[in-house]
Amino acid sequence: MRVLHLTTEFPPVIYGGLGTAVGGWVTACARAGVTVAVQLVEGPLVLDGNDAGFHGYGYGYGYGYGAPGHAPRPAYATPSGGTSGIEFFQSSWSDAVDSGVRAVRAWRADVVHLHTAMLWYVAEAIHAATGAPIVYHVHSVDRAEYEIGAEPCPWLAHSHAQDRAIMGSDRLIALTASEAELLARYYPEAACKIRVVGNGIDDTEEARSAAFGNRRLGSAIVLYSGRLVERKGIRELLGAIPEVLGAWPETQFVFAGGPPPLTGEQVAAQWLGPAHAPYRDRILFTGWLPPRAVYRWYEAADILAVPSRYEPFGMVVLEGMLHGLAVVAADVGGPADILKHGRTGLLFPPRDGAALAASLRWLVANPIARRRIGRTAARDVRRHWLWDRLVSPMVDVYSELLLWGRSASFRGSISDPAH
Questions:
Q1: Burial of 337 by CB count in 10 Å (0-12 exposed, 13-18 middle, 19+ buried)?
Q2: Which pLDDT belongs to residue 155?
Q3: How far apart are CA 317 and CA 330, in angstroms?
Q4: 290-323 residue pLDDT tens
Q5: Looking at the DSSP assignment, which residues form a beta bridge with residue 162?
Q6: CA 51 to chain centre
Q7: DSSP secondary structure letter of residue 327
């Protein structure tokens, strides 16, 4: 089985959960014996060294793109754990279609695994030229980002591409049962194509040490990790900060993430208001960080805040659990499916800033309880959410398509809801 992953992000240069998930799936499948390749459109490819590791993967620096009008240039990386090399094909936006078609034909891909609707035009062209079936991994439902998460309308154009990707793909991967229900409600004609496969995480020695070591029981560091956008509940978290610091002034808040061109101070200027001025020395915006630098904050922090208004899965939830953090998350989507309230984390009603502040204050005031919750979560994530436990259901989706392809013409039936 040969699977080509189509993406705009791949570790270590990632901007959120999408890149983390893609890297995890590619590497986990390679370890499990699936032959995998990656077509990376426009994103920087970082290979051949050891300075930019991602969950233990051996990627170093060395950038390059396939030249427009030429065959995609393959490169190879070998993840840790003894797996064989993963082949990469790079392209710019302008030659992504030609490069993708050549990659599928030359590499003999059985399935194309699409990770973002921004590249649906590439996947659609690949199918038209080669008949290769398309699996679309719906990492987030764009319509829900606007309607539930209240994301600004200028980004609405992305949802039109997603409409086409959802209707045109052969199979859709939903991250949780609640996401499958949401997809089916928005796109009832595509309901028969939906399969539920959650994301996972890889364990590391550093994460185990952080989770099961002796965390301090004094003042707390509250971490937010990820994209700084409206639907992530940033406003609610910012609103809770004065309440928490008013009661527990030694607490620190760290926001890890932001657009790469901006410094942490520039990002802070975009989000902080007059109410935060008295607490400015206890609020840190890091700006964009490579994965290893982000993980150092997981090792240093005590509490992870995930206040999303809409969260289809939440890779950060798994990251926090892996490092033994007490996770405070909105009771929506992925966090609601992953966390057990009061045992492996605390859940609060989405968009309820007062409830978020109360949960944070309680954890800050009860260091023994937050350490207990963090350690219980660390054991739970290792029991249920490691990548190697999740590959089999994804391989079942691929196999379903390959069996279907042997008994039907892909060209004539690929988008037929009856199949």
A1: middle
A2: 53
A3: 11
A4: 888 999 999 999 999 999 999 999 999 999 999 9
A5: none
A6: 22
A7: E
Q: How far apart are CA 360 and CA 305, in angstroms?
A: 8
Tokens encoding 99: 């490069």
Which DSSP helix (H) or strand (E) runs through 89? strand 86-91
Q: Hey, which CATH number is domain 205-384, 3.40.50.2000, 3.30.70.2750, 3.40.50.620, 3.40.50.300? A: 3.40.50.2000
* CATH superfamily label, 2-200+388-413: Glycogen Phosphorylase B; (3.40.50.2000)
Helix (H, G, I), strand (E, B) or coil at 152: coil
Going by the DSSP 8-state scheme, the letter that residue 263 receives in this structure is -
Alpha carbon distance 322, 385 (integer Å):
9
Over 26-74, what HEC string results? HHHHHHCCCEEEEEEECCCCCCCCCCCCECCECCCCCCCCCCCCCCCCE
Classify 3 as helix, strand or coil.
strand
3-state helix, strand, coil in the chain (%, to 5): 50, 20, 35
pTM: 0.83
Q: What angle do CA 267, 261, 199 make, to 5 degrees?
A: 80
Q: 12 pLDDT band (50/70/90 cuts)?
A: confident
Task: Pull the structure tokens for residue 183.
Answer: 């997809």
Residue at token pair 């978020």:
356
Fold match between domain 2-200+388-413 and domain 205-384: yes
Strand order across the beta sheet in which 2-7 lies? 74-77, 86-91, 35-41, 2-7, 111-114, 134-137, 171-174, 194-196
Tell me the C-alpha distance between 158 and 169, whole Å. 16
Residue 333 in contact with residue 311, Cβ under 8 Å? yes
Q: What is the pLDDT of residue 156?
A: 53
CA 202 to the chain's CA centroid: 13
Domain boundaries, given as residue ranges, for the chain: 2-200+388-413, 205-384
The helix or strand, by DSSP H or E, that contains position 333, with its residue range, turns out to be helix 333-338
